[in-house]
Design a protein that fits this description.
With 374 residues, this protein is α+β, with helices and mostly antiparallel strands. The longest helix has 51 residues. It is 47% helix and 24% strand. It has 9 helices and 13 strands. The chain is elongated and about 115 Å long. The strands form 3 sheets. The protein has a 6-stranded antiparallel beta sheet, sandwiched between helices. The chain has 3 domains: 124 residues, Beta-Lactamase (2-Layer Sandwich); 92 residues, Helix Hairpins; 155 residues, Histidine kinase-like ATPase, C-terminal domain (Heat Shock Protein 90, 2-Layer Sandwich), CATH 3.30.565.10.
Length: 374
Amino acid sequence: MRRALQEFEERWGLALQTASFGVWDLDVRAGTVHYSAEWKASLGYPDDGDAFNSTDVWRSRVHDDDLLRMLGALDEHLEGDAPTYEAEFRLRAADGSYRWVLSRGRVVARDEHGAPVRAVGTLTDLTDRREAERLRIERDAEAAASRAKSDFLSRMSHEFRTPLNAVLGFSQLLSQRLDPTADEAQLRYVKHIERAGWHLLEMVEDVLDVARLESGRLVFDLGTVPLRAALEGAVVGAEPLAKEAGVHLDVADVPAHAAVHADDARLRQVLRNLLINAVKHGRRGGVVSVWVSPAGEGWSLAVRDTGRVIPAAQLPSLFEPFHARGQSPEGVDDVGIGLALARGLVVAMAGVLTVQSTEDVGSTFAVTLPGARP
């Protein structure tokens, strides 16, 4: 029996050393409690052998927000109103940090009047489990917020289309019906209305694409795309804005064999957004340079403007939706959609979009995509 008892004690001691729980022994009358050495060590407290500590010592280590709840559960069991004691609370470690624990126990001895004399139980460390649960809740909340935002953007963008189509339709109708000999100012005003309508419609389409990207509903038709044709199409779309802004587009020759594996329409959209971004943030009389170069087994297309330098602190969040680029020049409307959409489209096509901003040089956005045979 002595040998069996010794083996049991050895097994119990080994279990305490390897498990994430401790044992406590409460002397109700004396108001003292003994915790296992392994549990004290896990919290960073010194081992004082078999000595009993005052319950006030350990209760002072319970988080203030949890103490009354913990004591209430314990008193309820000691008074016989609950069959067992169980409570979750935060316990302060020696380094000042708090760890979530689950305390369970029950009265094992009462006096002749039924008053509790002794109670024993365990403490289980729940910190990792609680942290995992907190992260899961945060992740679920972020996902729900992202879905709600995407749904809202999608609905609002669709709602904007109807009045925009009316604005564009009537502006075109006015342009056609105005007498060519009419007041030049009237013709200019109608053109302004139409141009602003098309610009707003493009922004609405970009917002819709951002929402589709985030929800995974954007469809890509991947294939071989010659870079020369894609760039020429994007430049044609950006030239009117560049002319109005007084910015010169300097486009280098693109090798005839330069081709990438991408979606033709989406690549043109990316290039258009980068060119418009460069023109908007370039200075009047400045230059927007565009060139293509080999990049490993793929191709890189770079767009450089001579505008203001983007602060280094803003670079990490530059491609987030609705994060405007740096400090926009006066009169520039930048709601932060174009760059976010461009990065999303490039990544979806297995590419990379990077940015560098240097004083006295400007900002360079470079798109790198897998190569393909033309």
